[in-house]
């Protein structure tokens, strides 16, 4: 699919579990849609504050503020619209049926209606991270509320050894996003806290492995089409 076709199918919402997932999974798509005159909004499910626990001088509030600033800089590079932050606590997601989950789904659905969202892309529901699974569940709930197209993109899903067998029943949409790759790389540079060196001394110093940064070299963005509920 050409990026122009994807742009014409929007406006899009890229729903990301944490600040940086939007750039890793869909940064080139966001940039390409914008370049074609389309609109791509972004919403972040969590505040991202759990990436560097107990780092000296870094409270959860300070980390969350830094990651929000990094995300804004990255989205500016991608020519994206300002983001919505849902501010769930990192690594402690609500589940479908929980009052907090349903309130967030209602809020996000209303936000999407007000912007005329027609397509939602979210992380794959098979990703090996609780926040990524929760983001997929939230996107499903919103898509059902407002009857829009739903797609899933891969971030940590690329590391799953049996990926091919687990997605074989999905229709895969390949979008040519080569034109957006330079912006995607620059946007990823904005997420300094996730690339090491910005926050040090944490009990678990998270740093994106080099193999994940290779996602920035892909010439296409692959989306898994999720069938709408009858």
Decide which structural class fits the backbone.
alpha/beta
Low-confidence stretches: none
| Count of domain modules | 1
Number of helices: 8
- What is the makeup of the main sheet? 7 strands, mixed
CATH uppermost class: Alpha Beta
Topology pattern, helix = H, strand = E: HEHEHEHEHEHEHHE
Helix content percent band: 25-40%
Q: Report the portion of residues in β strands.
A: 15-25%
The second-level CATH architecture is: 3-Layer(aba) Sandwich
CATH homologous superfamily descriptor:
LmbE-like
Major sheet: arrangement of strands:
3-2-1-4-5-7-6
Terminal CA distance reads: 26 Å
The radius of gyration over CA amounts to 16 Å
**Can you give the mean pLDDT?**
95
Task: Provide an overview of this structure.
- The chain is of the alpha/beta class and 230 residues long.
- It has a single domain (3-226), classed as 3-Layer(aba) Sandwich (Rossmann fold).
- 39% of the residues lie in helices and 17% in strands.
- It contains eight helices and seven strands.
- It has helices spanning 3-8, 21-35, 60-77, 99-114, 130-146, 163-166, 181-190, 210-213, and strands at residues 12-16, 40-46, 84-88, 119-123, 149-153, 171-176, 220-226.
- The chain has a seven-stranded mixed sheet, with helices on both faces.
- β2, α3 (60-77) and β3 form a beta-alpha-beta unit.
- α2 (21-35) crosses α7.
- It is globular, with a radius of gyration of 16 Å.
- The mean pLDDT is 95.
Question: Which helices and strands, and how do they pair?
Answer:
Blueprint: H1 3-8, E1 12-16, H2 21-35, E2 40-46, H3 60-77, E3 84-88, H4 99-114, E4 119-123, H5 130-146, E5 149-153, H6 163-166, E6 171-176, H7 181-190, H8 210-213, E7 220-226
Parallel strand pairs: 1-2, 1-4, 2-3, 4-5
Antiparallel strand pairs: 5-7, 6-7
Helix pairs in contact: 2-7, 3-7, 4-5
